[in-house]
Design the sequence.
């Protein structure tokens, strides 16, 4: 009887550990998203899956982003047709092993990068009921279009209360931005993971709309604090 109880308890522990696991899925064209993932995984325990296009060496930004625009327009014209999405390398990571998925993606012309859209089109249905986090890297544009793409492709995910936007002006401050985001979304509580990796606490950083770091919180106006727009 004791052996049976030990076996059952062990299996329950393994199941609990599996469901609490986090997968970070990312696509990086310029390298910014890769740096974000490296910083993120220095703060949390997570497995990492990189999405790669099947056709290598493409210059999506050439000729005023002609190829990138073409790929996005094809998806927009027929979002429910698998042939509208660019091919990516085969993925063997099973989503059954994870309860939390954090998506790290670039923004292309106010939309989610086409290669990440392909992955979510193929596997977004398997993320139903899972905790979904979204981190977006962009030069300057807001991320509402990327959020809309993600929710279209993963309609039944349990999204965290906030998304994280890391743009060109605050990319170098990503360690603090990610740390503050994990706190804001109650990452440990929501995911059931007991603790994140130890990091050094840092004060909030405040920027004006031009991306200039401010030394103190302004009394009036519109500014960005911890990657969120704040109005006083």
Sequence:
């Amino acid at each position: 009887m004791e052996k049976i109880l030990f076996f059952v308890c062990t299996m329950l522990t393994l199941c609990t550990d599996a469901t609490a696991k986090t997968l970070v899925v990312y696509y990086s064209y310029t390298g910014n998203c890769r740096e974000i993932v490296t910083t993120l995984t220095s703060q949390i325990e997570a497995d990492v899956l990189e999405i790669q296009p099947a056709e290598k060496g493409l210059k999506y930004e050439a000729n005023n982003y002609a190829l990138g625009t073409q790929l996005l327009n094809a998806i927009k014209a027929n979002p429910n047709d698998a042939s509208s999405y660019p091919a990516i390398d085969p993925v063997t990571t099973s989503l059954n092993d994870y309860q939390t998925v954090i998506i790290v993606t670039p923004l292309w012309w106010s939309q989610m990068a086409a290669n990440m859209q392909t992955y979510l089109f193929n596997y977004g249905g398997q993320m139903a009921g899972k905790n979904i986090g979204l981190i977006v890297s962009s030069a300057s544009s807001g991320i509402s279009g990327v959020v809309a793409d993600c929710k279209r492709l993963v309609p039944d995910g349990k999204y965290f209360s906030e998304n994280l936007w890391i743009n060109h002006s605050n990319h170098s401050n990503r360690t603090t931005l990610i740390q503050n985001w994990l706190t804001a979304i109650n990452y440990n509580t929501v995911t059931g993971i007991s603790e994140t990796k130890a990091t050094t606490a840092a004060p909030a950083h405040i920027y004006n709309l031009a991306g200039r770091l401010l030394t103190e919180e302004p009394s009036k106006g519109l500014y960005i604090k911890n990657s969120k727009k704040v109005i006083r």
About this structure: The chain has a mean pLDDT of 85.
